[in-house]
Design a protein that fits this description.
Two copies of one chain form a homodimer. In chain A, the strands form two sheets. In chain A, strands 4-5-6-9-8-7 form a six-stranded antiparallel beta sheet. In chain A, helix 1 packs across helix 3 and helix 2 crosses helix 3. In chain A, about 25% of the residues lie in helices and about 30% in strands. The radius of gyration of chain A is 23 Å and the shape is globular. The first copy, chain A, contains seven helices and ten strands. The first copy, chain A, has about 270 residues and is of the alpha+beta class. At the A-B interface, helix 1, strand 7, strand 8, strand 9 and strand 10 of A face strand 7, strand 8, strand 9 and strand 10 of B. Strand 10 of chain A pairs antiparallel with strand 7 of chain B, so a sheet runs across the interface. The first copy, chain A, binds a DNA duplex (30 and 30 nucleotides) through helix 3.
Chain lengths: ~270, ~270
DNA sequence: TCGGTAATAATGTATATACATAATAAACGA
DNA sequence: TCGTTTATTATGTATATACATTATTACCGA
């Protein structure tokens, strides 16, 4: 006869509350339900990088102590973060911040290398240009930057076999990622480099079809005016815009797939 | 002193269980947790149209009776369906199946009329052709149809002001939507028509850039080879593929925006 | 030392209870 | 009859409890 694990009966560790401080700017955090507050504070720690990927977050019974609440309340918050893909749970071991490979099942942030290799073609990356410079007005608008702000500008090509597969034009905010200043991006593409460095991110996509201009046509070895799929992506993490990319895929070489569903018919 | 609402103490209405029947094909429904089973059965009723949009689903205390479980368990299932956008709850009134306008915040199913009108331009719809015919092999593959299957094929144009905005080529499975056979689609576009008829749906998108072929160029009044954004969408509902559309947007007239995020930086 | 078994510690699911909140419906008095 | 008060009802949040499940750790005997 196993009685109870008694998680709620553990000594409460009354001091050392993460949370009660609160009043964050006194504007928000007003009357949120407790499980929402727990969720947002844990999410905040993950997004800000304070708890990096792989980090073990406090056990449920520790959080019940910190927030002086029952285990079910903590469980509700953490379970939601699991559904959002920020946390993974392992029994007996604990709950861990997941690694930020694919943020969402829908229109996930593609690793171009994987994409090319999944086509059975050899992948090659080639950096073209790299420049640290002050942000212009348009850049500041794009990345919501303060007036004097610096960023890194990179232009690179991704090859599938002998043929250019994708042209990448990227801005990285040096406010959000200062380490980018010391990186040449000659051997590693900015995408994977950022993903391994920025604890978590989310993105906004803009997708359109354009004819290749002279520069893009030259770099991608296609005729000017060839239809290209242009994906522009702004990425943010922990309340700060991190990067803006424009990916130009020549013609019909590329197809984006996005799916969202309660339940897909094929599997049921 | 308000004692308790006593939801759990209500007479259990022991007969009339929706659920205990179960054993559905005995292949699945094996050892799902109860709250998952409730979720799936309610979701199934919504997706199949048995509970159409606007329908009031049973009160929590009724479901506790039907499933012989506590209110918290029912609440967990329903709360998840609220998060998925299938159900809306109103206090004192009950829980209702939502109307299926926008299935997901991400890359939602656009109503082209709204899209055009949001640009401040007058909208006009024009059906080009309409045909009931047997499904060819390619169609059957696309919509996962049985061998002899019939469908409706529609071609139509959407105008923004005087200019063609979008070319629509659509197939509708007459197995899933038999009423389509009696509809000319001369005055109402297939999109809105379907949305008002199919209880709920989810979709898979494929997005690419192509040069306009002769037919598309003629209909859209653009030069052949002009870059177009082509969105192909398969939609299913209640385990059945309903429709396949190809929307061709000329050149840079159109931009798709998709966003997914734990929390957007702008708002925090 | 190896390999099996038992204890342990975390999450997973579920219950019964309690009170808060919000919207509707009913009762009631001017 | 109208408008105000009061009761009712369904959802919203939270608690304390219980036991199941599953890795891991610890132990123990051949």
């Amino acid at each position: 006869m196993t009685v109870d694990d008694g998680a709620n009966l553990r000594p409460a560790a009354a001091e050392a509350t993460i949370s009660i401080d609160g009043d964050r700017t006194a504007t928000e955090a007003r009357e949120l339900p407790l499980h929402r507050r727990i969720l947002e504070e844990v999410e905040g720690k993950i997004l800000s990088g304070e708890w990096p990927p792989g980090h073990r977050i406090p056990f449920e019974y520790e959080l019940t102590g910190q927030y002086r609440c029952s285990r079910m309340t903590v469980n509700k918050a953490i379970t939601e973060l699991v559904k959002r893909g920020l946390i993974e749970r392992r029994r007996k071991s604990g709950s861990y911040v997941t690694h930020p490979h694919a943020q969402s099942a829908v229109l996930e942030i593609h690793d171009i290398r994987l994409e090319v290799e999944s086509l059975g073609l050899p992948y090659r990356y080639q950096r073209r240009t790299r420049l640290d410079r002050a942000a212009k007005a348009a850049d500041r608008r794009l990345l919501d930057l303060p007036d004097p702000a610096r960023l890194t500008e990179i232009s690179a090509l991704h090859f599938a076999g002998a043929h250019p597969f994708c042209l990448e034009d990227r801005l990285i905010s040096l406010e959000a990622v200062p380490e980018a200043a010391g990186e040449t991006f000659e051997d590693v593409a900015p995408g994977p480099w950022l993903i391994s460095r920025v604890p978590w991110s989310a993105a906004e996509h803009r997708i359109r079809a354009v004819g290749a201009d002279a520069r893009a046509a030259g770099l991608l070895a296609i005729a000017p005016g060839t239809p290209c799929l242009v994906v522009e992506r702004r990425t943010w993490s922990g309340g700060l815009y991190v990067t803006h990319v424009r990916l130009t895929y020549p013609g019909e070489m590329h197809e984006l797939v996005a799916e969202f569903a309660p339940t897909h018919p094929k599997q049921s």
